[in-house]
Amino acid sequence: MNQFKIPIVLLVLLSSCGRFSNEEKKEEQTDRIVSAAKQYTEIMYALGVGDKLVAVDISSTYPPEVKELPTIGYHMHLSFEGIMATKPTLLLEHGGKFSIGPEAVVDQLKKLQIPTKQFETKAVDIASTKQLIREMGIFFNATENVDSICKKLDNDMAIAQLERNKYSDTVKVIVIHYGQAMNIYMAVGADGTAGKMIEWAGGIIPLQKHGMERITSPEIIAKANPDVILLTDFGYDKLGSMEHILELPGIGLTNAAKNGKIYRIEEHDLIYFGPRTGENILKLQQLIHQ
């Protein structure tokens, strides 16, 4: 079978038609970087090198100006034609099992020897986040802003800690994320980025799991009985109304539903560590403790 053939439906869904039909931008740019990693995308803009990007995957949604770029599909369902249309000189991806896909597209990119880059540092806490920012600053020859970015992150974290000390309660929080790759709603486990951020904000995710779990039974959510439920933006908007949100398995049985504490949160504020993590924790504190 010719592995360069891609199903027509996939091409339609994941075409490179840009969020605002602007796929012709930056045609003459020398550095033509495509990012399939939302964390890298945000850090590039913070470093002042966002203009090197010619396309991103659809999960790259911060800062707002990134939405002016063409998209190459979801990072786990990339469009080969979409990527090649950008004439990339480099593809950024996190590396690891859930970095980019599908496998057929990855194989095609390898056969055409499209350069890819994964940064060595994995941001799993504040110290490693600052290290990643420094590593990317060196790679992009953009170190002049690194110290100020890291200092602001430290200051924001210090403020967030002071604010956390004002709260005597620990709020039980469930995060529900819509998995675009699998077209399902999933509950986020405590052992991950969201769990750590919620802990810093004065909450706890009562699901002692790593990664995410598909919501297949009302018992998963009802048994946890959270005080607050956070839905990431894509899934929240897809449902479109609180009535439909309450139809998700187990949601309507929780204290969060009974007390009207189900909130929308931007995925890019919760799913990865970056320059705004301190700011985002302060937002979380206001949200879950209100």
From TrEMBL:
Positions in coiled-coil regions: none
Domain Fe/B12 periplasmic-binding: 32-290
Pfam families the UniProt entry points to: Peripla_BP_2
UniProt source species: Acidiluteibacter ferrifornacis
Protein name: ABC transporter substrate-binding protein
InterPro entries in alphabetical order: ABC_Transporter_SBP (IPR050902), ABC_transptr_periplasmic_BD (IPR002491)
